[in-house]
Amino acid sequence: MSLSIRNLRKSFLEPDGNRLPILDVAEFDIAAGEQVCLVGSSGSGKSTLLNVIAGITTADSGTIQIDGIEITRLPEPSRDRFRAQKLGYVFQTFNLLPAFTALENVLLGMSFSGRGANKARAVELLGRVGLQHRLHQRPTKLSVGEQQRVAVARALANQPSLLLADEPTANVDVANQDNILKLLREACTESKVSLLLVTHSPDVSNQFKRVEKLSDFNRA
Hints:
Blueprint: E1 3-13, E2 19-30, E3 35-39, H1 46-54, E4 61-66, E5 69-70, H2 76-86, E6 87-90, H3 102-111, H4 119-128, H5 144-156, E7 162-166, H6 174-191, E8 194-199, H7 202-205, E9 210-213, H8 214-217
Parallel strand pairs: 3-8, 3-9, 6-7, 7-8
Antiparallel strand pairs: 1-2, 1-4, 4-5
């Protein structure tokens, strides 16, 4: 799935009434099946860019086309449906539902796609991130690193066409960092899924052929 951004602007209203520019991107493209690592300092707008691409946050102006579909023109319910069916998102804050187990969190992510939940696939994905023995534990019983791995499994559950990953290895040890990166990249390669991964870690960015600095194309 290709991604094409043109003249994208996003700002936030400050307490004094002024607007703080966060994003001003003339153009940014990812080809179908391409894997891109985006680096930038904390607060530079990396997470905001992912949220705008996913349709979680609306842009002030500009266009975002995902496989030719202009998502900035879709009403919120349509954006939510498109995100559930076509996008995977590894959130920096995990966004796991605390009342549900690891397995149930992945199954719920599947149910939002409208294609139904596939328990066998959910179990397989959790096993691939090393959580086969933690399927029935709720997030409060999981370590931060284990919660991150549940979030990775959930993002892959619906076999997305575009995968967005916001610091997916920030809360895990080196061994699990390598495992998560391998899982994400292999899953994308096997299914020709486009990947946009945000990180501030050179150990992570060095594993990508295409690395972009947000400051190189964000004029805000």
